[in-house]
Amino acid sequence: MKTSVEYPAAKPRALKRSLAPTGVQRQPRRATITRILVPIDFSRGSLKAIPYALAISRRFGAPIHFLHVVDTTQYLPPTLLTLPLVPQSELNRRLLKRLQAVALKFPASGKIEVHIPREGRASKEICAAARELKTDLIVIATHGYTGYKRTFLGSTAERVVQHSPCPVLVVRQRHPALIGANGQATRTGFRLRKILIPVDFSECSRAAFDCGLAIARDLRAGLTLLYVVNPHCYPFGDEYAALDASRLMAAARDSSRKQMREMAKKTNLRCSVEVRQGSPAREICEYANEDVDLIIISTHGRSGLSHALIGSTAERVVRYASCPVLVVPARRKAASKLTN
Fold first, then answer.
1. What's the predicted TM-score (pTM) here?
2. How many Cβ atoms are within 10 Å of 42's Cβ, its own excluded?
3. Which residue of 71, 220, 296, 319 shows the fewest CB atoms closer than 10 Å?
4. First and final CA of the chain: distance in angstroms?
5. Alpha carbon separation from 24 to 18, 27, 264, 304 (Å, rounded)
6. Beta bridge partners of 118
7. Which residue would you say has higher pLDDT here, 175 or 202?
8. Contact indicator for 167, 138 with CB cutoff of 8 Å
């Protein structure tokens, strides 16, 4: 069940799919977004995601869906002393009214639908709602907790990134304004000057590259391809092993630069290439701090023991990046959400 607050929706832009004859290089598809999901917990931080969603909605004529989840994992099991004084149905009615009040603060912003609150683990319910609504994009804010605070509280945004069926735009709560050319919000609200796409030439990073091309082409943004040579992937032992590792890393830098230049030539866009050495997540975040409006990165979507042992560069970038991060699941069906 859902209730909606509707405003005159903007006319969707005509998004053409380029078709090329056999043997001719296929041009990147245009970006297309038809539904946007925005999870809201009524904190000031979560409301930071709304302006981004509105900007994207105006750009593509896509309706926005507001969702609140009552995270039951944050409460103690009910006892006779902790039974709620107000029935859950009444609580849901009040929460729904609060969602409607938030929607009404943004008149003439397109179509906004508010949904009856869900109960359960927040990240799980958000992903379930995204599947049911068949959304193309989730826009969510992250608290950006680190250290002990993150260990105890965790991050809903990171769990959504790990399990989402569609791309996720993660907004930092402390980020000052909308993405805008020259650091200023434009009238349309979503113009990008520079997009950073980390690549490692795997099928996984290809999903982010294709998505970045579609967005850059549609929004006329510049691209930077970044490859990070990770020294931990090379053996360091005696002087001979160290020498071999040094040569291998030098060869990796040269090879990656050559491959990225080939990729850049095929984009027909303003595209630069950059090679760095160090921890991938740290180097990506440090480069983004210099002059980047948006990071587009893909995630392998590992879970369970594999995820616990290997971790995810995408999740670390989400945790530490100072600018918004668009995370594209490597799964083919999910990755194609923005480039149909």
1. 0.79
2. 13
3. 220
4. 28
5. 12, 9, 17, 42
6. 69
7. 202
8. yes
